[in-house]
């Protein structure tokens, strides 16, 4: 089992991204837009704005629709302003913390975002959702997502979870390393084929996770990640970087389970009324490790006390048990059984955020 305690992604570490966070300038048909310029419809306080990016220079008078001239890049909300009035259900952005808040009252004016009777915290902005390891919310953008991370320290692992995309590319560059020091790219399309019928007629799905445990240890590394879709939205729940800790060899008695929050009731005629809700994955896993590793494992246990980590019971992404044995979450139990002389058995209960 390999565990990545993710380092915090700050403004300084997120050096570039194609996901917008602030309201864009209002689109005007008579304005000439350069390649890469952002624009959207007029912004209304508390309401979403779809941001579009120009795909060419000399872009004048072309309607903001998907095509040769424009592409949608995401939805943003106006920045909180104490002097502006927000209606009930309206959403505003706190740029300082990259957070979204929903108004709980009508004519919400002059009330601080910390007033829980007036505002409800609903999560990070679309740009920072993938870096919020305490919630499982997906960053979404049409067509593709590209972002650049500069850790400012040595890391050896990159984990991506909750992917919706058809292809990916990863590049790590370093000045001290002489340029590109690591790269990976490929398709995320997959198809489970257990019969000839599956082989010829089975539907394609896409891989939900990628993990790289062999990133070169350069302190000036710059990480560029791109996810692309052949059509529709690209999504990503988690982008975590850090240095993995080896918790030992996962034993074969691991289990995968869920907390089911769906509700089932029946009407007066006995018909079932099903209200689907999210399943929360959980897992019990057991590892065995030499006792020389125990102090490092105890340190990990303290570091992730009440915090989320990215846990991989298996390190091979093509293994059939890989997804079932990997979780972004926290431990409910972390027992170290020291009954054997030379090695310890680690019993871990995990729950996804």
Features:
single chain, 353 residues, mainly beta, 8-stranded antiparallel β-sheet, 45% strand, globular
Question: Could you characterize what this model shows?
Answer:
The protein has helices at 196-201, 294-303; strands at residues 2-4, 14-17, 32-33, 38-40, 49-54, 59-60, 70-76, 91-94, 99-103, 119-124, 139-149, 157-161, 167-174, 179-187, 189-190, 205-206, 209-212, 222-236, 238-242, 245-246, 249-250, 255-260, 263-266, 272-275, 279-290, 309-312, 326-337, 343-352. With 353 residues, it is mainly beta. It has 2 helices and 28 strands. The strands form 8 sheets. Strands 1, 20, 21, 22, 25, 26, 27 and 28 form an 8-stranded antiparallel sheet that branches. It has a 5-stranded antiparallel sheet with strand order 2-11-18-13-14, with no helix packed on it. Strands 4-5-7 form a 3-stranded antiparallel sheet, with no helix packed on it. Strand 4 (38-40) and strand 5 form a beta hairpin.
């Amino acid at each position: 089992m390999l565990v990545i305690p993710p380092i915090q992604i700050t403004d300084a570490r997120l050096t570039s991204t194609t996901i917008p966070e602030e309201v864009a300038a209002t689109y005007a048909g008579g304005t000439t837009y350069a390649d890469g310029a952002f624009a959207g419809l007029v912004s209304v306080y508390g309401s979403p704005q779809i941001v579009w990016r120009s795909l060419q220079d000399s872009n004048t008078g072309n309607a903001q629709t998907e095509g040769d001239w424009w592409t949608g890049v995401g939805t943003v909300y106006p920045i909180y302003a104490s002097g502006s009035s927000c209606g009930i259900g309206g959403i505003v952005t706190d740029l300082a913390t990259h957070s979204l808040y929903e108004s709980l009252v009508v004519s919400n004016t002059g009330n601080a975002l910390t007033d829980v009777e007036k505002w409800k915290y609903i999560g990070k902005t679309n740009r920072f959702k993938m870096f919020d390891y305490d919630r499982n919310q997906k960053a979404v953008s049409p067509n593709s997502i590209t972002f650049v991370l500069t850790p400012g320290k040595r890391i050896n692992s990159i984990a991506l979870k909750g992917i919706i995309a058809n292809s990916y590319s990863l590049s790590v560059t370093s000045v001290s390393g002489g340029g590109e020091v690591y790269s990976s790219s490929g398709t995320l399309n997959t198809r489970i084929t257990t019969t000839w019928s599956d082989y010829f007629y089975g539907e394609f799905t896409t891989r939900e996770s990628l993990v790289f445990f062999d990133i070169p240890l350069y302190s000036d590394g710059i990480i560029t990640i791109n996810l692309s879709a052949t059509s529709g939205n690209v999504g990503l729940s988690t982008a975590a970087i850090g240095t993995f800790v080896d918790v030992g060899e996962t034993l074969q008695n691991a289990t995968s389970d869920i907390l089911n929050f769906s509700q089932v009731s029946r009407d007066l005629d006995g018909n079932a009324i099903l209200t689907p809700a999210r399943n929360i994955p959980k897992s019990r896993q057991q590892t065995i490790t030499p006792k020389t590793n125990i102090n490092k494992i105890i340190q990990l246990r303290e570091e992730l006390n009440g915090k989320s980590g990215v846990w991989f019971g298996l390190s091979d992404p093509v293994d059939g048990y890989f997804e079932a044995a990997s979780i972004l979450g926290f431990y409910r139990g972390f027992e170290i059984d020291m009954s054997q002389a030379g090695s310890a058995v680690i019993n871990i209960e995990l729950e996804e955020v």
